[in-house]
Amino acid sequence: MNISNYYWYFSGVLTPKFCDDVIAYANQQEETMARTGGYGDRKLSKDEVKDLKRKRNSDLVWLNDTWIYKELHPYVHEANRNAGWNFEWDRSESCQFTKYKHNQYYDWHCDGWDKPYEKEGPDHGKIRKLSMTCQLTDGSEYKGGELEFDFRNYDPHMRDEAKHLRRAKEILPKGSIIVFPSFVWHRVKPVTSGTRYSLVVWHLGKPFK
Asked: Measured between alpha carbons, how far is 136 from 172 in angstroms, rounded to an integer?
């Protein structure tokens, strides 16, 4: 798919109070080890955990609270419009509150799959179209943990590694938001000190025609 904008950002738009409220609320909930697709919810063996952590190492909490969605949805709609994507979407998945502590990271991946959800329920037959990441921690409170994008698969002119990698420095301020198509490849580099808190939400719609 040819697009002119690979992400759209809003710098420091969420209030510090909202960010702190989300962090405090999420830290009161039970956290789980982050997984990638294919592992499901079953109990993993030690070898499977070791293999998983080669790709992704972080801790997370799932949130489904209306007060959070109410704050975030206007920015998704605005980004979708301003970036020129105009993707049709009608549902958001659970909010993924993620903790990246020392040496934790998420290697290269994209959020979408090649097939729609098959499980019964409101997600059935839909795909992830738009991904959103909210920066709950200011960039001065940790080191490392950079969000980076890889555009090689979308622009044939990007042959030089220095050109096809893009670090999203725009969202370092606390309360920043970045929205991007769920098929865009990205990663979170290892945190070297401090803790990075973020909130990720995926927005679903019928498959592209």
From this structure: 9
